[in-house]
Automatic annotation (TrEMBL):
SUPFAM superfamilies on file: Phosphoenolpyruvate/pyruvate domain (SSF51621)
A molecular-function term among this protein's GO annotations: catalytic activity
InterPro entries per the UniProt record, alphabetical: ICL/PEPM, Isocitrate_lyase_ph_CS, Pyrv/PenolPyrv_kinase-like_dom, Pyrv_kinase-like_dom_sf
PROSITE patterns: ISOCITRATE_LYASE (PS00161)
Protein name: Carboxyphosphonoenolpyruvate phosphonomutase
Pfam family, one: PEP_mutase
CDD domains found in the cross-reference section: ICL_PEPM
């Protein structure tokens, strides 16, 4: 009998999460390493930050300089790392008119959700001043185009974002979001709130506005997104308070940028000053060393898959192991006479007489080598 169990799409998984009685906290990531760290720590969604994508790929600020190609390429990479974890991506202004918005590239990339905003094409970060808006009709056309595209190609959660609070005021901004929900948006995102009073009022007014499109019926009343930007204009609150206010989805877009900046800056200062960068860690091993990072990013899985498929690409091992401190590393293959192999340096250290090295054995019976992963 054929297997009829079709895996849930990323959008379906995200919709199911939104129906749960909780507030989802999503870390903002922009590269594979940051995403892998978040996955390892158990986050069940990832948010692709547009600012982070612009900074990491272009070395430029979030001023609308990243193209659709830049954004889609990054979103597709992030979505590919774990298909069970929905990725919600910044889609800026849609990168053009309705035809451009409807190109469905985010859907085909496996993204679970995206947000579209009402700034002009030459946009800027929502926590900067001087933002310019398109008129309401243009904004709603973007939302309708995204809704129409998914009905033809595949589901994606459409999040309507407005930056109208700064220039048009609170009531006008809320009105734009309510109309966007009617036009097809599943979720509402009021950017740039400056007080907890605004945050509470926005959630109250938007949640009470039931979604009227087919894709959002199962989520009504309208879920709301809260944007927590470190160093931005919106007061920072924790997930418990966000849930009390009525928010279903909270993003921390500067999470990875801030963490990386602080770590890079500290390490750069040390290397520049001393010409040396000491290992980070303790007696259990080097923290963030090459092996740990490779394992985080799937080294063992790649080797195992290659072997299971009959490949021999990594049969001679992938890691250099230093069994005894103070000796120069030498690359060699280590194998047991009986054909065993092991990825544990302890096994070789404790039983050196049972192992032979295909190259060099140090005089103190300690072995350096490349060990196949099993």
């Amino acid at each position: 009998m054929a297997n009829t169990n079709t895996p849930l799409s990323a959008a379906a998984r995200f919709r199911a999460m939104l129906r749960e009685d909780r507030t989802i906290v999503s870390p903002g990531v922009y590269d594979g390493l940051g995403a892998r760290v978040c996955l390892q720590n158990g986050f069940d969604t990832l948010y692709m930050t547009g600012a982070g994508t612009a900074i990491s790929t272009l070395g430029m600020p979030d001023l609308g300089l990243a193209t659709a190609d830049d954004m889609v390429r990054n979103a597709a990479m992030l979505a590919s790392l774990d298909r069970n974890v929905p990725v919600i991506a910044d889609a800026d202004t849609g990168y053009g008119g309705p035809v451009m918005v409807a190109r469905t590239r985010y859907i085909l990339a496996g993204v679970a959700g995206l947000h579209l905003e009402d700034q002009v094409i030459a946009k800027r970060c929502g926590h900067l001043g001087g933002k310019e808006l398109v008129d309401e009709a243009t904004f709603l056309a973007r939302i309708r185009a995204a809704d129409a595209a998914r009905k033809k190609v595949g589901d994606i959660v459409v999040i309507a974002r407005t930056d109208a609070l700064q220039s048009l005021g609170f009531d006008a901004a809320i009105d734009r979001l309510k109309k966007a929900v009617v036009a097809g948006a599943d979720m509402a995102f009021l950017e740039g709130m400056t007080s907890k009073e605004q945050m509470e009022r926005a959630a109250k007014e938007l949640v009470s506005s039931p979604a009227e499109n087919a894709y959002a019926e199962d989520q009504a009343p309208t879920p709301c997104l809260l944007n927590m930007v470190n160093g931005g204009v919106t007061p920072l609150i924790d997930a418990k308070e966000a849930q009390r206010m009525g928010y279903k989805f909270v993003i921390w877009p500067i999470f990875a940028l801030m963490s990386a900046f602080n770590a890079y800056d500290a390490a750069a200062k040390e290397l520049k000053k001393t010409g040396f960068l000491k290992d980070q860690g303790d007696e259990s091993g080097v923290r963030g060393g090459v092996r740990e990072v490779f394992e985080l990013c799937g080294m063992s899985e790649c080797v195992r898959f290659d072997e299971e498929m009959g490949g021999k690409t990594y049969s001679n091992g992938v890691y250099m192991h230093k069994i005894c401190a103070g000796h120069v590393l030498a690359i060699l293959t280590v194998s047991h006479p009986a054909g065993e192999s092991h990825n544990s340096t302890t096994a070789i250290r404790d039983e050196p007489q049972r192992w032979r090295a295909g190259g060099i054995t140090c005089t103190s019976s300690c072995t350096y080598g490349v060990l196949p992963i099993r």
